[in-house]
Amino acid sequence: ALSNGTVLCQLVNHIRPRSVSIIHIPSPAVPKLSSAKCRLNVENFIAACRKLGVAEMDVCVCSDVLLCKLPAVLRCVTALLAVEGGGMAEKDHLSPRHSSPSSSSSSSSVLSTDFLLFYCAAMILLYVLYCYLLA
């Protein structure tokens, strides 16, 4: 699911809904996506990262994902989470701190970012294990 871009597109949409408008997902009838659909998913993920403000030096290229170059993909995902987390920190800085439902929701957003980072790391490790077992 990592090399076909599905998980990456879902991650971006979880961070910012509708960042990727079309995600090609395998179906039970056709469990493996074509290489063209995989490439489209990855290109949509990369475009969304750029749109959300990930620095160009941190953005992975399409071949990094398709060829499972995990360090580059992890750098991109980490930068995406940092950019989105930085946007939340700026919003928190502008608003006064007091005990209200909005301040508790900002702390749950931080937990959500930490969870997304954990989720991506777990998916990458599972994919590496899967590739190792196939070899």
Automatic annotation (TrEMBL):
Gene3D superfamilies per UniProt: Calponin-like domain
Region (Disordered): 90-109
Transmembrane stretches, start-end: 115-134
Keywords, sorted A to Z: Membrane, Transmembrane, Transmembrane helix
Low complexity: bias regions: 97-109
Keyword Transit peptide attributed: no
Domain Calponin-homology (CH): 1-85
Record has Secreted as a keyword: no
Protein name stated in the entry: Calponin-homology (CH) domain-containing protein
Organism placement in taxonomy: Eukaryota, Metazoa, Chordata, Craniata, Vertebrata
